[in-house]
């Protein structure tokens, strides 16, 4: 075959233009089509989701009102709540703030309400605090194994079997409501007695070294229509009111309607379910 | 083959050594585990064959139902209700871990970590 250099260059040039041009032209056409269908779907989607606006939630979201004034009036009530919780759930007491495991605890006003001014009257009050069981919980999003999840009743609870102890949830929680088991909670002293769990509840497990733990809003009690242990410890004082926030007939909803309450770090958008009467 | 005699002798010694457990026991599987059955009840929550092979699956399913969906409805067998729980269900009948769980788990060299968190019945830990 005898091809002149001039002809060869012509054919090569045309082939190169065709090779580059045709696929990109096709791509552009296909993309245009894909875009058009995506737009059609997008228009159909909002209709299926109630007009695309966030509707008022009808799902159950359990929450709690903490009447700090009541806790100030009744001395020792807050400690009683903590005691009730910690004996129900075998929460260990490590006697060292670095290792501390907290489900419900007393905190200073300024550590709870970082965005508000502190007044002298706050100094004497025992601010009881626990997991906020947020409607938009950052710990659940941080958990890589779905060990922490949002239960159908709005509780943010944990499956300790799945916790790998990465502590992402602890970093994610803006309320410090999560604790890591640095030590074995079942450690025994020389006499064979448990060092850190004073009173054992054999109906509820302990945790093991290397998992994160937190308040579970007494999921095991609430599922049996019992109030959480801390609410039960308050008795008729109404210092703690527990119930479904989304049910307008519930006691808690009535209290929230008529009383001014504060939430912790509301500005973060976690939608906490604890409300404080200060 | 260079050093054929040494290699073949070595191989024979190796095979004899590796199969030691088989010929030493004359093909006997050892003491077959006999887990102690609970007294006073005849029927578990599932049939024996299923429980023998898949009790761990059932326990996992129970756990997911109970904590993920909050479905704590009890399992009824022969008019008796059982909690879907290891501590509050299984171990209420199978009260002796050593004579029930450990019998097979030791035999098959399985080490479940249930008891790192859960309690044994009537146990003082």
Notes on the structure:
The complex is a heterodimer of chains A (278) and B (125). Helix content of chain A is 35%, strand content 13%. With 278 residues, chain A is of the alpha+beta class. Chain A folds into two domains: 34 residues; 216 residues, 2-Layer Sandwich (Alpha-Beta Plaits). In chain A, strand 4 and strand 5 form a beta hairpin. Chain A starts with a helix and ends with a strand. With 125 residues, chain B is mainly alpha-helical. Chain B has five helices and two strands; from the N terminus they run αααββαα. Chain B is elongated. Chains A and B meet through loops of A and helix 3 of B.
Task: Outline the fold blueprint.
The complex is a heterodimer of chains A (278) and B (125).
Chain A (H helix, E strand, L loop, with lengths): L4 H44 L13 E6 H6 L3 H12 L15 E4 L1 H4 L7 H4 L3 E4 L7 H5 L5 E3 L5 E3 L9 H5 L5 E3 L31 E3 L4 H4 L6 H6 L5 E5 L6 H8 L15 E4 L1
Parallel strand pairs in A: 1-9
Antiparallel strand pairs in A: 1-8, 2-3, 4-5, 6-7
Chain B lengths: L3 H15 L1 H5 L23 H22 L5 E3 L2 E3 L3 H8 L7 H7 L18
Antiparallel strand pairs in B: 1-2
The CATH class assignment of the largest domain in chain A is Alpha Beta
- Taking pLDDT < 50 over at least 5 consecutive residues as the criterion, the unreliable ranges of chain B are none
Number of helices of chain B: 5
Q: What strand order characterises the main sheet of chain B?
A: 1-2
Strand element count of chain B: 2
Q: Count up the helices of chain A.
A: 10
- Please report which band the strand proportion of chain A falls in: under 5%, 5-15%, 15-25%, 25-35%, 35-45% or over 45%: 5-15%
Element-by-element helix/strand order of chain A: HEHHEHHEHEEHEEHHEHE
Mean pLDDT of chain A: 89
């Amino acid at each position: 075959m005898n091809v002149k250099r001039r002809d060869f260059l012509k054919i090569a040039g045309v082939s190169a233009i065709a090779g580059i041009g045709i696929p990109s032209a096709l791509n552009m056409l296909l993309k245009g089509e894909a875009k058009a269908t995506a737009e059609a779907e997008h228009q159909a989607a909002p209709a299926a989701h109630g007009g695309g606006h966030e509707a008022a939630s009808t799902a159950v979201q359990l929450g709690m009102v903490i009447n700090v004034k009541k806790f100030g009036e009744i001395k020792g009530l807050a400690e009683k709540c903590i005691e009730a919780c910690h004996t129900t759930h075998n929460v260990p007491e490590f006697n060292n703030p670095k290792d501390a495991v907290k489900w419900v605890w007393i905190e200073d006003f300024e550590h709870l309400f970082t965005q508000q001014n502190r007044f002298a009257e706050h100094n004497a009050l025992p601010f009881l605090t626990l997991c906020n069981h947020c409607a938009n919980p950052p710990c659940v999003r941080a958990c890589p194994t779905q060990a922490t999840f949002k239960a159908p009743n709005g509780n943010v609870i944990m499956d300790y079997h799945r916790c790998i102890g990465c502590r992402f949830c602890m970093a994610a929680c803006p309320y410090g409501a999560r604790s890591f088991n640095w030590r074995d909670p079942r450690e025994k002293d020389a006499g064979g007695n448990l060092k850190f769990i004073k009173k054992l509840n054999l109906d509820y497990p302990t945790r093991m070294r290397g998992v994160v733990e937190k308040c579970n809003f007494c999921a095991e009690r609430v599922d049996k229509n019992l109030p959480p242990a801390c609410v039960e410890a308050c008795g008729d004082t109404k210092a703690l009111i527990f119930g479904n926030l989304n049910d307008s007939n519930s006691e808690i909803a009535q209290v929230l309607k008529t009383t001014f309450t504060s939430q912790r770090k509301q500005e973060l958008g976690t939608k906490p379910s604890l409300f404080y009467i200060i | 083959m260079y050093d054929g005699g040494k290699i073949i002798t070595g191989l024979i010694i190796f095979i004899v050594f590796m199969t030691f457990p088989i010929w030493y026991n004359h093909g006997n599987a050892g003491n077959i585990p006999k887990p102690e059955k609970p007294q006073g009840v005849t029927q578990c929550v599932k049939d024996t064959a299923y429980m023998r092979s898949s009790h761990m699956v059932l326990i996992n399913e129970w756990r997911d139902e109970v904590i993920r969906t909050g479905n704590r409805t009890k399992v009824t067998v022969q008019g008796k209700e059982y909690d879907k729980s290891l501590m509050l269900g299984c171990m209420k009948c199978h009260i002796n871990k050593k004579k029930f769980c450990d019998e097979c788990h030791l035999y098959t060299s399985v080490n479940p970590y249930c008891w790192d968190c859960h309690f044994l019945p009537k146990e003082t830990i």
